[in-house]
TrEMBL record:
Residues 447-458 have a biased composition (Basic and acidic residues). Homoheptamer. It comes from Devosia subaequoris. The chain crosses the membrane at residues 146-171, 183-205, 211-232. This is Small-conductance mechanosensitive channel. Residues 412-467 are annotated as: Disordered.
Length: 467
């Protein structure tokens, strides 16, 4: 309903602007078509020269001009003097237009080579209000003459608007099943319906006699689009990126993705940005242009994922035994998939340890990679220690610049030390369950994050569909 109200308001504003434009253009046409009268003669241009007699003298020219100025009754005490073809005009009038008219009259008179217009304009308050009243009356008459065109313009524009709305609904009904993206659907149906309304405006302007303006309205929209595109380049880029993202669907609502250095759950895709809910509970808005041009890693597109960790054992320990113990831990754990099968491979021979790299697959929709990794590392450590596999610390080199001091020890402490050294170390008691209370039920964080309270930015428009 809010979108429909907004669209109706835009159409009404366009209707009012078009009616005002037609009104003033029709008023100008009525002014050009009405007959000339004494009250409006000062606006009429002089089309040809004023004939006197061939070879007229300066006195004849001055007399002819004086008679014309007195006949108009626009001037007080008009005087015309002509010397060697130069006409000097004196007197007063109540309008600058009438003063200019007298000068133009003298210029077009035969035998006049130059004009010195010294007619003064009497700008008293009474004459100013009088001219304003005359102009108001003329404007009212022009409005009365133009009302049929105004009515026609209103009817045509309203009809064009109704037809465009009908075309929009038909196009939306036809294309709803063919175009999945709601943003692309809205753009296409508006691109079909708006030209119908523009044709109505073009018809109104043609009826008003403004053919050139009508062509400008229809043909100038491309230039306006280019100007707006340069002025709002970033906004247009994000809008087009949102259109392409909604068409290609690289992710859906609720997917866990990594893009532009941010990892989070997709909450919203609007015409400006993509909103992610990070695993630490913050909303991140990434411009759609950045999302479209960046590498997108979608962790939810495939239900199974592979994870890995590394374990170091001593050189005196059996590598095959360590591999078998770790393999048993992986095969017994319920979160680890049997296919593809887990692998325990020798990665490198380090300075103090033989490093084993462990690969396993798990259901990423149900389980959390961090929680599973914690549980497997805990169980692997317990299995290796209970199986007699040493897990030494990395080798450290200690330098004694002044040598190593030797201290004589008595026999009793030495025997105690030897006795304690010969005693085998017992591994500490560890929890052997698949998941401890601190590790939870190993469930994926995405499910718990869906219930996080808070307002999603710009959630009024969502171009994504949740799975």
């Amino acid at each position: 309903m809010a979108r429909a109200a907004k669209a109706s308001a835009q159409w009404v504003r366009s209707l009012v602007a078009a009616v005002c434009l037609l009104f003033f253009s029709s008023a100008g046409m009525a002014q050009l078509l009405e007959p000339a009268d004494p009250a409006g003669m000062e606006d009429a241009p002089l089309a040809q020269q004023v004939e006197v007699v061939p070879g007229a003298s300066d006195a004849q020219i001055a007399a002819r001009l004086s008679d014309i100025l007195r006949a108009t009754e626009w001037y007080e005490a008009p005087q015309v003097t002509v010397t060697d073809g130069v006409a000097f005009l004196d007197g007063t009038t109540d309008s600058q237009l009438r003063r200019n008219w007298a000068g133009s009259l003298a210029e077009k008179t035969q035998g006049v080579v130059a004009v010195v217009n010294r007619i003064a304009v009497d700008a008293d308050v009474g004459s100013t209000f009088g001219r304003a009243w005359v102009e108001s009356v003329g404007l009212a008459q022009q409005a009365l003459q133009a009302w049929p065109l105004v009515v026609l313009a209103v009817v045509v524009i309203v009809a064009a608007w109704l037809v465009s709305v009908l075309v929009l609904r038909i196009a939306r009904h036809v294309l709803t099943g063919r175009i999945e993206s709601p943003l692309l659907l809205s753009v296409v149906v508006r691109a079909i319906s708006i030209p119908v309304f523009l044709l109505g405006i073009y018809f109104v302007l043609r009826v008003a006699g403004l053919t050139q303006l009508a062509l400008t309205v229809l043909g100038g929209t491309g230039l306006i689009g280019i100007i707006i595109g340069f002025a709002f380049r970033d906004i247009a880029e994000n809008f087009l990126a949102s259109l392409l993202l909604s068409m290609r669907n690289p992710f859906s609502g609720g997917d866990l993705i990594e893009v532009a250095g941010h990892t989070g759950i997709v909450q919203n895709l609007n015409t400006r940005s993509t909103v992610l809910l990070t695993l630490d509970g913050n909303h991140v808005q990434i411009p759609n242009a950045t999302v479209f041009k960046s590498t997108i890693k979608n962790y939810s597109s495939i239900p199974s994922r592979r994870a890995e960790f590394m374990v170091g054992i001593g050189y005196d320990s059996s590598v095959s035994l360590a591999q078998r113990l770790i393999g048993e831990v992986l095969n017994k754990h319920p979160a680890v998939l049997g296919q593809p099968e887990p692998l325990v491979l020798v990665d490198e021979l380090g300075d103090a340890t033989i490093n084993l790299r462990v690969f396993y697959w798990f259901d990423s929709v149900s389980y959390s990679p961090a929680k599973i990794n914690s549980a497997l590392l805990r169980q692997t450590k317990n299995a290796l220690l209970q199986g007699g596999i040493e897990m030494p610390d990395p080798a450290r080199e200690v330098v004694f610049p002044k040598g190593v001091p030797i201290v004589q020890m008595d026999a009793a402490p030495r025997q105690t030390a030897e006795t304690s050294a010969d005693r085998p170390a017992q591994p500490p008691h560890e929890e052997s369950s698949d998941a401890t209370a601190e590790e939870g039920d190993l469930s994926n964080e995405s499910k718990s994050m869906e219930h996080t309270e808070g307002r999603v930015p710009e959630s009024e428009i969502n171009l994504l569909s949740r799975r």
